[in-house]
Design brief:
The chain folds into two domains: 279 residues, FAD/NAD(P)-binding domain (3-Layer(bba) Sandwich); 178 residues, FAD/NAD(P)-binding domain. The protein is 28% helix and 22% strand. It contains 13 helices and 25 strands. The protein is globular, with a radius of gyration of 24 Å. The C terminus is likely disordered. GO terms for molecular function: flavin adenine dinucleotide binding; N,N-dimethylaniline monooxygenase activity; NADP binding. Its cofactor is FAD. InterPro entries: FAD-binding_MO (IPR051820), FAD/NAD-bd_sf (IPR036188), Flavin_mOase-like (IPR020946). This is Cation diffusion facilitator CzcD-associated flavoprotein CzcO.
Length: 500
Amino acid sequence: MTVEHFDVLIVGAGISGIGAAHHLQANCPDKSYAILEARTSMGGTWDLFRYPGVRSDSDMYTLGYAFRPWTGAKAIADGPSILQYVKDTARDEGIERHIRFDHAVVRANWSSADARWTVEATRDGAPVMLTCHFLFMCSGYYNYAAGYTPEFSGSTDFQGRIIHPQHWPDDLDYAGKRVVVIGSGATAVTLVPEMAKRAAHVTMLQRSPTYIVSRPSEDRIANGLRSLLPSKLAYGITRWKNVLMGMFFYNLARKKPAKVKAKMIDLARQALPAGYDVGTHFTPSYNPWDQRVCLVPDSDLFIALGQGKTEIVTDTIAHFTETGIALGSGTSLEADIIVTATGLDLLMLGGAEVSVDGARVDYAQAMSYKAMMFSGVPNLATSFGYTNASWTLKADLTCEYVCRLLKHMDRMGMRQCTPILNDPKVTDEDFLNFTSGYVQRAKGKLPRQGSKLPWKVHQNYARDLVMLKYGKVDDGTMIFSNPAPIARPAEREPVTATVG
């Protein structure tokens, strides 16, 4: 088997992976690289999800790349527009030719003897082997093969169709049908008003309420600035405006949760029909930002609830029936279609098995370094975005730091960098301080974070900007070494033509 070697292998051709490739080309142009993508097309989340109304739940001035202005009129953009933005970036930056489609990474082993990763992938069932000096995992944080669906008693009795949004069928016709959407997160609040446009009736069945706030789909300030200033300058100003507003709102919610909770509930009450039962359906039991706040553009969910074809039911599920769902309260919901918008199944590093010198890495026992690397694991970084802000804000910073790290190693003549937990005063904590179901279910898969820097996870863009863009790379915790290279056969030159 021929083994190709690259300076850097990027895993995943979604919004993170394409961004990583840009930063690598711009900051480390001498580095050879390839992108391994398990699917047949790029785009990641924005190519996978095809359910009605799929859109961002963050504004595109922060979800977009720092280096490429978002020029669409809508700040809350639909999925196809975001996918096209990612594809346009890959095309214009010359990244497409570096992507190896249908390459699913199965395992990666680091060899300290020769300071390199051996990466095993499959393509059409056949094994593919590659090596690299640095492995950059940009494969997201959830299982692309299947979403999370609880076991519902009697689900096999239901005579209609049960659909998970992660795998929306092309042939589903819901026009004139009764639909029940189970869930209260971002996917559910997107689906309900969109499906209500064609369905006979749509019910959002939630076990408990979520904080839901409305935001204009268009940013008038951004559109105004773009008409007056160069595109990049206008984008940069808007980006920082939205970053600072988001940070202010989040910090206020953490410092004065009762006040922010009351305000958010009052805003929902004002947007809903008079007399709507806000206490039951829009008053969560937890504080704001203990879970992610749901964003709806132009009050579309609230408007749909006032038009008579949509309702919210807050109850538990006793069991499915032939014609719908029996509820814990003793009532029932009739349905032709049930959509289980019940969340994601978190998966670290795309499910790849990672080992160091033959010893398998247990992520749950590792400590997260700067929320992107793992204690004791050399030359590997992962792109993991914010839970309280746009994913790409952190992804961009992570990419810049990886490039700084690679350049520092070159200047020092070092081939290996390893975060080492050498401070006995550091205690471990949960990686994400989030009560959302998908996070709680994945506790056993996630790494730990530490009680102090650089092991502490901030969830704060400004602080991360200072640490990752301007902070010291050689900080005493990142240990640099230079294993003597072993003799090995001549390596095949990397191929830059698209394979897929």
